[in-house]
Design goal:
single chain, alpha/beta, Rossmann fold, 2 domains, 14 helices, 18% strand
């Protein structure tokens, strides 16, 4: 295994594509492999890979993205080559599939001759990549896109009888994280808080690479304070965009919202789809100022929604980078965020956000009262300025390519 210590000096950083070691074909061949990709559902990994495909579409770099699909085949996608491998659907998340065919993956790797491989999902994919390489030495990076403890290990139930089970699941997940990610040549994460957690768990060679936002698309729109799906009823409008699933802890958000007297509640709009949609729909029907809206795929429509809201809510404690938080800030929205995961890193220094304690509905209610006082053009201007200062995609991929260069150099692959 070839490892590169975090923050190791790199003389080639920032010198462009010509500074990077090439594959035998005369170019840097970057391969992403992930099962966290869906054609029918949006997600942070898909957004990241879209931005990465655009950024790596330059002379001297060949970018291939390998994902599961209904059928096997290759196509051009966002400036990269998208290789789909026929794979089964996840039983409880039919919008997603899991890579299983390492021989088909091996065929793709043979064809593109990778200089470096980035693995974006932690379950079967790392093993499949090693089988597919058939003993060839290629640097492998693991990107920690999902908080395995809070997203997959903890069942969100309150019954005291299940407390020992939660403890066992957390311990198992932590051991799994250490085992999986210490087999990579480097582990990348997108926030300082996640980097600290990984190091505390015993993961070595952790590199922080904060993710960016498309600042040209996600932007304030002049005079855009209305939207037909987000009517103004004389109260603040709070917006959530994302998957409707247990790990987002929408239950805590909704419980906190319901603690406020009706005339103090914001109109809360939840945009997305997921396996708890019916549960949330019940709350939306009770007249409690909660509106459930369908998943929005059109980015300009989403920008109009962000602009029509007064603030954004980010309740997921397992966020590893919080792309929707960045999108909201870029559109000029202040953010009410759970004080756990990557969210606090996203809003730190913005003077356009408020944190509430994880699992505390009463503190959600306090935060909503505070956000009502923050609404205004000055706060919106601070939110946008913070996004412009801290969320430039070019910085993300300059750092990532510099890490790739170090790994390829250390491996002797040229």
């Amino acid at each position: 295994m070839v490892n590169v210590a975090p923050n190791a000096p790199n003389a080639n950083a920032g010198r462009g594509a010509s500074a990077f070691r090439a594959s035998a074909s005369g170019e840097l061949s970057v391969v992403d492999v992930t099962s966290f990709f869906s054609d029918s559902a949006s997600g942070g990994v898909r957004t990241y890979l879209t931005a990465k495909a655009h950024a790596l579409g330059r002379p001297g770099i060949r970018h291939t993205i390998v994902v599961p699909g209904e059928t096997t085949g290759m196509e051009e996608w966002e400036g990269a080559t998208l290789a789909r491998i026929r794979s089964p659907a996840f039983p409880f998340a039919p919008a997603y599939r899991q890579l299983v065919d390492w021989r088909a993956l091996s065929d793709v790797l043979e064809a593109v001759n990778p200089s470096v491989i980035e693995v974006g999902s932690p379950f079967a994919d790392p093993l499949l990549v090693r089988l597919a390489l058939r003993g060839r030495r290629v640097p492998i990076v693991g990107f920690y896109h999902a908080d395995l403890v809070r997203t997959f290990a903890e069942p969100f139930v309150d019954h005291a009888v299940l407390s020992p089970l939660r403890v066992i699941l957390r311990m198992t997940a932590r051991r799994g994280i250490r085992s999986i990610y210490n087999r990579f040549d480097a582990t990348v994460c997108a926030s300082a808080s996640v980097a600290r957690e990984l190091r505390d768990l015993g993961v070595e060679y952790v590199h922080e690479v904060p993710l960016g936002v498309d600042l040209d698309t996600f932007r304030p729109l002049a005079g855009a304070n209305g939207h037909p799906l987000l009517p103004r009823n004389g109260v603040p409008r709070a917006l959530f965009v994302g998957r409707l699933c247990p790990e987002k802890r929408l239950d805590v958000l909704l419980d906190g919202h319901s603690l406020l007297p009706r005339d103090e509640r914001p109109d809360l709009f939840l945009v997305g789809d997921g396996n708890i949609r019916n549960t949330i729909a019940g709350k939306a029907r009770d007249g409690g100022r909660v509106t459930l809206l369908p998943y929005v795929s059109d980015r300009e429509e989403l920008v109009r929604m962000y602009n029509a809201a007064d603030y954004y809510v980010a309740p997921g404690p397992g966020e590893t980078f919080g792309l929707s938080i960045g999108e909201a800030l870029a559109c000029g929205l202040p953010v009410l965020c759970v004080a756990r995961g990557a969210g606090p890193d996203r809003i730190k220094g913005s003077d356009a956000g408020e944190l509430y304690r994880h699992g505390d509905p009463a503190d959600v209610a306090r935060g909503m009262r505070e956000m009502r006082r923050r609404i205004g053009p000055e706060t919106r201007a601070r939110a946008r300025a913070h996004a412009e200062r801290t969320m430039d995609w070019s910085v993300t991929f300059d750092r990532l390519l510099a890490l790739y260069d170090q790994l390829v150099t250390a491996s002797g692959k040229s």
